[in-house]
Design goal:
Length: about 230
């Protein structure tokens, strides 16, 4: 992976709590975040939970390399959002300027924590559909803004392989959002993947979440071992 191909964009622990309906008891579980990128989720939660691991191929790079890439893409992303405000729900985040402050604040917390967290094993350079963890290594796996969102780039077979891999390493898997990037429609891979997982013996459901920024993205996929 080339860093020039990545659009690093980070979210906070507060947003993770909303996106994945994380309860206080959930936050005490062993958790793996897939595709966390420069989110501050790990940095914030690791202050009270020493069983949090984030995985992302961007972790092959240094903090300064990631910081430089963030500074490069930030104005581009801000312009894109400003030109498409109708695609977002401006409730918890009031406007484009507030969104920029929220995202940059989260990414700064990540950058301040990154080198230390990487040395302690909290940031792991890896990517779906194959992860370097033992079976049932975690109680909860969270996949943020990767599966289903990038349906135009990740085919159905890769989605299913990735979901089965997450189910291999975790007792419960939650994925958010479920809309494809670009058209804000439910991913065409969602129903077939859900059906295949049910046929494999998993308990599969959709659950409403108390978070919506991408318009229509108000549900998460939940998969559990029976």
């Amino acid at each position: 992976m080339q860093l020039s191909e990545v659009i690093p964009w980070g979210r906070s622990l507060s947003e993770y709590r909303g996106m994945f309906s994380l309860s206080e008891s959930d936050l005490k579980k062993s958790i793996v975040g897939c595709g966390d990128g420069p989110a501050s989720f790990n940095a914030e939660l690791s202050r009270t939970n020493d069983q949090v691991v984030s995985i992302d191929p961007i972790y092959q790079f240094t903090a300064e390399q990631i910081r430089s890439r963030i500074n490069t893409v930030y104005p581009q992303v801000m312009e894109q959002v400003a030109n498409n405000t109708i695609d977002y729900v401006w409730k918890d985040i009031a406007n484009v300027e507030a969104m920029g402050k929220t995202r940059m604040g989260a990414m700064q917390i990540f950058l301040n924590d990154y080198e230390h967290g990487k040395k302690s094993g909290r940031y792991v350079n890896s990517a779906l559909p194959m992860l370097p963890f033992k079976d049932h290594a975690f109680e909860l796996a969270l996949c943020s803004h990767y599966l289903f969102l990038y349906s135009g780039h990740v085919d159905r077979a890769q989605h299913l392989l990735s979901m089965k891999e997450l189910c291999r390493i975790a007792t419960e898997v939650r994925v958010y959002p479920l809309l494809s990037l670009g058209d804000n429609q439910v991913s065409p891979h969602l129903k077939p993947v859900m059906t295949a997982l049910k046929e494999s013996g998993f308990e599969v459901s959709l659950s409403a979440v108390p978070y919506e920024f991408q318009k229509g993205a108000s549900e998460m996929l939940v998969v559990k071992h029976v």
